[in-house]
Amino acid sequence: MCGIAGWVAFQADLTTRRDIGEAMTATMSCRGPDASGTWVAPHAILGHRRLSIIDLEHGGQPMVVPTDAAHQVVITYSGEVYNFRELRAELTAAGHDFRTDSDTEVVLRAYLHWGEAFVDRLNGMYAFAVWDSRTEELLLVRDRIGIKPLYYRPTDDGVLFGSEPKAILAHPDVDAVVDLDGLREMFSIVKTPGHAVYQGMYEVRPGTLTKVSRTGLTSRRYWQLRSRPHSHDLETTVATVRDLLTDIVARQFYADVPVGTLLSGGLDSSAVTALAARHQETLGIAEPLPAFSVDFVGHEERFQADVQWEDPDIPFAVEVAKHVGAEHVTIVLDSDDVLDDGVRGATLRAQDLPISTGDMEYSLYLLCQQVRRRVTVALSGEAADELFGGYTWFHDPEAVHGDSFPWHHPFAKAGGIGALRDVGLWDRLDLGGYVDRRYREALAEVPRLPGETGLQARMREVSFLNLTRWENFLLDRKDRISMAVGLEVRVPFCDHRLVEYVFNVPWAMKTFDGREKSLLRAAMRGVLPDSVLDRKKNPYPSTQDTTYEVALRERVARLCEPGQPVHQLVSVEGIRRLLDRPVGAYVMGGPWSARAVLERLVEFNTWMTTYNVRLELPGTEGKGQE
User: Fold this and answer.
1) Tens-digit pLDDT profile for residues 145-154
2) For the domain with range 234-533, which CATH number is right: 3.20.20.190, 3.40.190.150, 3.40.190.10, 3.40.50.620?
3) What is the pTM of this model?
4) Is-catalytic flag, 2?
């Protein structure tokens, strides 16, 4: 895992601009605390910050392979390719000589051997840039699911790129400008593929190769979800899911540094932890697998069940760890921890945008920070809900059959949309119109199966929306926050083989026992305790401490003071309408809640100043914070 940055300019001599390339790369130091490197040529600068995971001694970057006396191919690479050992064997048989044991060199030599078709052979999570001096072309490549981030900004004579927007914003010619659609994207909980919020900046879409040459910039999708008939019966399907997961976890366990898991006590993380513990045992590792959970002081005592959370997590996490022989480690936080200005500032800088899920993001940062003290790699359970149908909106008829993104139904029920209306944002930004436009675009991308109708056809749509929009939102959050503390989080459920397979399993089979995630539960039967297998899905934990809401209200109240940057977007009267709600109205957390809107306004205010943001939209002053 690492951070990358770079600059291609065909009409400039970049050998005199190394300092700018180094400044861009330096913004990625949290992603790569172990080493740094910069490679410079007349028309290209490639920068790299390294988090050492495989071949700790020899895997430095940017990595260069000469092709002849006059030309080189160079890569700056972030991520992991889990099938690199098989690819290395194939390339060795074809005559390639390797000088490192890293997966980076395998990717580079795969490009030399297969050309652009090399992307079809990679299994992993990755975002990288390859500069080929023979053709003076830059390739920007992102993994199929979009686990690792990669941003770019076209220029008049080339491109700027980086793992995160902050690398591009470090270039002296780039200002942090956000227009109307950028604000809509930020407040709508949509996560449009390719959208980067900042004006002129884009994300490389998942499963996409973007090429930059003297003739311009082109992109092509090398992978996307396809619909096909599912031919397996239930028993075979369950066995296939179990076999795939076993292989995936084994592949993703490989590292030359300590590995652990993130364990909530839910089905997804428990499955990953159980399979990781089994694999560790087959490797003959005597020490128990460390499995990390997060909790809040007094959470179990004050816990109140609601539409999202049915019971506290920790007792189940403890039971799982004992069942599989893992070492359970609980990171206990209190309200002061998640209210700490340093933590909030670090979380904002990690994401380059105001937070969206409230205290969940601060607690995730603190969890990853503590986990990093013990391990460098952690396996996590992201994407199981999107794949197997775990969220409430997969099973709520109003959400399923509503004419919008299904997660907007709980957003409305939990008060998030109401809070946006109260503060004036919903109408001013026309968020309803924006959400509808993006929803129609997403529906047009759904791969249809001929002859498929009714509920099955609709559930294919719902699955596609979750896997290509909602999941990318969660993956981006997890990557950015974990990498801010130099922790590599791997996500076994995002292996494209599993995604392709489960996406095409009929909905009736995915819910064959009348519950959410039937297939995954059946695949893990006998591996996990029945209490965990039969437990209702809970989201990532959020504090229910009312003292947190009181402290948050105090911060929101300060937004009413004259001269606050947030006034370019919302009125003081709108903010006061939110504060007029009684204490206790915002206790429920999560991205759907009204409390998340309070959090977003506070962080928006800080972000405007920290990033010197200039808003370009009707009704604003159009000036950043000096």
Assistant:
1) 999 999 999 9
2) 3.40.50.620
3) 0.95
4) yes
